[in-house]
Amino acid sequence: MATAPAADQRRLLDVQALDTRLDQLAHKRRSLPELARLLELDAQVADLYTALVTSRTAADDLRRELTKAEADVEQVRVRAARDQARLDSGQGSPKDLQALQSELVALGRRQGDLEEVELEVMERLEAHEGALAGVTTAHQALVEQKTVVETDRDVAFREIDAEADKVRGERATAAQGLDAGLVALYEKLRGQLGGVGAAALRGRRCEGCRLELNPLDLDAIRGKAEDQVVRCEECGRILVRLPEPAQV
């Protein structure tokens, strides 16, 4: 790429400004604080969900344990009631009635032991259900927070995308009709140099790398034809010469 109309080179700065704005919008979209917050919330929700599943499983185990304990107590009660009814009827030999009395005493002790087990399981289940309710509430609160943040993120996305669409339209207009070789060089350099392929020469300074050119390089550039495409000796970007301000 050796030459391009001076007007095209100056218009290239408009294209560069719009490309820079598009890059800024893309960076803003990637760097929204809502995205970082969602990562935090996702991790917290996942941790609480794991705790919730574990807690629910433990509660289910305790409910089954309580059901068994209640069944064991009920079984002893039924047997004791049956023995008591037989004893109250007075039917049977003295030896049989004495055996029933002994069994009733044993069943009473057994029922007491089982009721203690039942009560202990009930207390554990009650405490665990309280903890489960707390985990459930905390999990739901985090899910609701996540929904709010997702809504905020989507609103921000729409605003950024709308502005980006507008800028892309302006960029297409600005680039229309530009020298194809100039644009190709610009795009190549933009990809190699952090998104900035063209910069203005203001005074002695390249606006791309912000460095001042030495007098020899500056004189050499000023001595080139207007349509000559020049590059910054420091950063390699297309260096666009602007008209000298009128002398008063």
From TrEMBL:
Coiled coil ranges: 52-79
Keyword Coiled coil assigned: yes
C4-type zinc ribbon domain ranges (all copies): 205-239
A Pfam family this chain is assigned to: Zn_ribbon_9
Keywords, in A-Z order: Coiled coil
Residue ranges of every copy of the CT398-like coiled coil hairpin domain listed in the record: 15-193
Family annotation (InterPro entries): CT398_CC_hairpin (IPR056003), Oxidative_Scav/Glycosyltrans (IPR052376), Zf-RING_7 (IPR003743)
PANTHER family: PHOSPHOLIPASE C-BETA-2-RELATED (PTHR39082), SCAVENGER RECEPTOR CLASS A MEMBER 3 (PTHR39082:SF1)
Protein name in UniProt: C4-type zinc ribbon domain-containing protein
